[in-house]
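Example record

One chain of 185 residues, shown exactly as stored in the release files.
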Amino acid sequence: MPRPASDRAAIETEIVRVRSLGLDALRTLWRVTFRSSPPPAFTKDLMARFLCWHFQEQARGGLDPETAKHLDGLARGGKPGADRPRRLKPGTVLLREYQGERHIVTVVPNGYLWRETAYASLSTIARAITGTAWSGPRFFGLRSGADRSKDIEHEPAGSLARHPDTDRWHRQGGRVSTPHAKAHR
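Predicted structure tokens for this chain:
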């Protein structure tokens, strides 16, 4: 719901006031606002920016929990997108050649379709294809081999995925080819 113009005007007035304060006045305002001393490394500009952000947060509300969690993860050294698994749209086709045989898996609303049988897990399909325990996302090139816990933007060689909206095949190294080009390789 939009804030009344008077609230926005009051916030803007407060921002202008804070930006015009000297260093000693900013330190005093910081102590009053946060009940602690400002970090010694904070410059006048950084202190003013932080205080203005805090006043805006108090007036308009803070970050939603998902954004706060994401930023906290980044601050702790996480990589962008590492906490969010890749979501495949229904209709996406995964292609994997294994021991000379081409395996085509289609993403459906409640799982995956392989050889006209529905499966809840890619790992189950990978196990059926190889006869050994495999991470399904890794087997189909949706996760890297070096770090199984992180998603990657491109698939390794031997694995292709077709996005249903673009009807294009994606391969390692960012090269994109059509299904016809794949057949001629």
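Notes: Strands lie at 93-98, 101-108, 111-114, 117-119, 159-163, 168-170, 176-177.
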